[in-house]
Amino acid sequence: xxxxxxxxxxxxxxxxxxxxxxxxxxxxxxxxxxxxxxxxxxxxxxxxxxxxxxxxxxxxxxxxxxxxxxxxxxxxxxxxxxxxxxxxxxxxxxxxxxxxxxxxxxxxxxxxxxxx
Length: 116
Ligand SMILES: [Zn+2]
Known about the structure:
Blueprint: H1 3-15, H2 25-44, E1 47-51, E2 67-72, H3 78-86, H4 103-113
Bound molecules: zinc ion.
Residues 45, 72, 74-75, 102, 104-105 line the site of zinc ion (ZN).
């Protein structure tokens, strides 16, 4: 389990109504709201895997040797995702493309990894 995953799981445990009686209810509610904010942000910023396409324009997702890179579809310019959807993606990379993890996910992970 990574440090960010461990930190989130610990917070989820603390927010459980029945788990820790030593955590006051208002604190549990605040923790739950913070978790919801983090979860909503992470749900928006997902990695999109890019694979080379076959001659018919279908991504070869079953062949790991055809994997190109991961990008964040949310942070990348809409022209990048449109080119991916249209099969016009330049495999050497596109202007406006944001790699994975994107700055938003890196910032969340860095905060969750930090020693307090
Ligand atoms: Zn992103």
